[in-house]
Write a structure and sequence with these properties.
28 strands, TIM Barrel, 3 domains, alpha+beta, seven-stranded parallel beta sheet, Immunoglobulin-like
């Protein structure tokens, strides 16, 4: 993947082999995304959930895909002592694709060449050799292992209805043209070597596209500083990325390509934040890639660090609610066998998806501008899905206001039984069973006429302001070590002097407004601080909650000016305030 020291912060099938792959259905024309979705990406946008596979000669070492760099190997020693010993005899394409399918994944991306430079196919491009210059640095030529694993995986994807895609690294630590340096970047031997490498890299890609017909190419190894003109150290820029994109599209016009032909320059078809979930929908299609245990390539040291199924399911839901895709990684061992931890995690996700996948596939993000304290929303024409991770003890679930006619409300796991509900200015109040049907995430479906559309907030509605996005002062900090917060974190205050200020708060037409504060106070005692609105202060006391992961709300009436020029500030005075998750200002 990306920089180890600073982690990297499938179109209807293409013209070639389209009929062989059962792509997910395109989105209905009436569905509203947060951004335009090109026709070639409709399958990808509807899929929502994919499998990433990091597999290469580094898997033999069992210390992650950055072993060459992190351990300071020379090219010759790494090639002869690591790559040459790689023997993936246990790689079972049917088993891997079957695992992805049972997990509910709709597409699969495997590393064809990672930063180490080892090609996982029988490439004939002559310059990609070992240090002797006599042997091609490829799986069959360098190890004697003659099976074509990419072809096996492609065939199984076609047989089982999963979309096949490939990863390719632009940077190449073992290529004769390059020498690795800090942060995993490389220095070119000469500008002639640079030109020749780019020419031959395109031939690599020509082989991959024409031989394996991937629906998507996932590039990486592009994080060089932007320089124009290029230099020997910063030898890849946006012009190169644009040229590479156009070259690949010339070979397959409907190919989907990620932004990392040169990230952060507006290139590619979608954004790909790594190991993070954006706090809100992005302006372009996006996909987050995530690990199961903190490792991309197999790392034996992290085999006891797998995320729980609950964490993974909730992360998937959060991503889709913000109109993104979720690419979840496995790293098979050096013998090609998928780890038990990976199988268990994906099997658990599959159990959830077998019941709740209608709330994921083909959905768009939440129709609302704020997120509820109990979970997240997704939607598709005719249905609003409320993903509930915190089951209300009162059995009353308040869902945001909709303009649509409601046909009925029910649990997705029990669609034959309607739930009672009422509508008011506060939203839709649904009476739930006493216990959640799923311990991780349960889904309530509001069946409506048309595409679910948010109504004007009033009463219990309003505008949510996340604490982690406010201005912090005097030691107040953003944390995420206690569960149950609704954004990307919450704010914790020091014993005295800490402050949290929300600027540009919308007061509407002005006048008194109900301010709702979501907080957690696991100290065992109530805590008092100052609430200052547009310079006028008052004391505010937050009662104790059962734990630091138990979030409650309190309300206070505050005077606001008309428009968006209001400030709301919390200050600790002599004792630290409760942790604050967000505030809601009623309309």
């Amino acid at each position: 993947m990306s920089i180890h020291l600073n982690r990297r912060q499938l179109l209807k099938a293409g013209a070639v082999g389209a009929a062989a792959v059962a792509l997910p259905p395109a989105l209905p024309a009436t569905s509203a995304a947060a951004y335009p979705v090109p026709a070639k990406m409709e399958w990808w946008y509807a899929a929502r959930f994919g499998m990433f596979i990091h597999f290469g000669s580094y898997s033999y070492r069992g210390l992650g895909e950055w072993a060459f760099y992190n351990e300071g190997w020379s090219k010759a020693d790494y090639q002869t002592q690591v790559s040459a010993r790689f023997n993936p005899a246990g790689f079972n394409a049917a088993s891997i694709v079957g695992l992805a399918k049972r997990a509910g994944m709709k597409y699969l991306v495997i590393t064809a060449k990672h930063h180490e430079g080892f090609a996982m196919w029988d490439s004939k491009v002559a310059s990609f050799t070992d240090t002797t210059g006599r042997r091609l640095y490829t799986l069959p030529s360098y190890t004697g292992f003659q099976r074509d694993l990419l072809a096996e995986l492609k065939a199984e994807c076609e047989r089982q209805g999963i979309v096949f895609a490939l990863y390719y690294s632009i940077v190449d630590w073992c290529h004769p043209s390059q020498t690795v340096r800090s942060t995993g970047l490389t220095t070119m031997a000469s500008m002639t070597a640079r030109a020749n490498y780019i020419r031959d890299m395109k031939e690599h890609l020509r082989e991959l596209i024409t031989r394996y017909d991937p629906a998507l190419l996932w590039f990486d190894g592009d994080w060089f500083p932007e320089r124009n003109p290029q230099t020997l150290t910063d030898w890849w820029n946006a012009d190169d990325g644009r040229d590479l994109y156009n070259f690949c599209i010339s070979l397959k016009p409907n190919l989907v390509i990620n932004e990392r032909v040169k990230r952060n320059t507006g290139l590619g078809d979608y954004l790909c934040p790594e190991q993070t979930v954006p706090a809100r929908p992005l302006p372009r299609p996006w996909e987050t890639c995530q690990t199961l245990n903190g490792a991309w390539g197999y790392d034996s040291r992290k085999e006891n660090q797998y995320k729980s199924v609950r964490t993974l399911v909730r992360e998937l839901v959060r991503v889709v609610s913000r109109d993104g895709n979720y690419l979840l990684n496995i790293g098979p061992r050096g013998d090609g066998v998928v780890t038990t931890g990976s199988v268990n995690a994906l099997t658990g996700m599959g159990a959830w998806m077998s019941t709740y996948s209608d709330s994921i596939y083909g959905t768009t993000g939440s129709p609302f501008t704020s997120e509820p304290s109990w979970g997240y929303y997704t939607k598709k024409p005719g249905k609003l899905f409320a993903h509930v991770s915190t089951w209300p003890t009162s059995r009353q679930l308040v869902i945001g206001s909709l303009t649509n006619t409601i046909n009925r409300v029910y649990l997705l796991n029990n669609p034959g039984t309607s739930l009672p509900y009422t509508r008011s200015s506060s939203g839709i109040t649904v009476t739930l069973p006493a216990s959640a049907p799923n311990a991780d995430v349960s889904v309530v479906v509001v069946e409506v006429a048309g595409d679910p559309t948010a109504g004007p907030p009033s009463g219990g509605g309003g505008t949510t302001y996340q604490a982690e996005n406010a201005v912090l002062g005097d030691g107040a900090s953003v944390y995420s070590n206690h569960a149950g917060f609704t954004g990307t974190g919450f704010v914790n205050f020091p014993a005295s002097g800490g402050s949290l200020q929300f600027n540009n708060v919308d007061g509407g037409a002005g006048g008194s407004r109900m301010l709702t504060v979501r907080f957690a106070n696991g100290s065992g005692n109530s805590r008092t601080g100052r609430l200052v609105v547009n310079g006028a202060g008052q004391n505010i006391t937050t009662p104790a909650t059962a734990s630091w992961s138990t979030w409650q709300t309190m309300t206070v009436t505050v005077p606001l000016n008309a428009g968006t020029g209001n400030t709301i500030r919390f200050e600790s005075t002599g004792q630290d305030l409760a942790n604050i998750d967000h505030i809601v200002v009623a309309a």
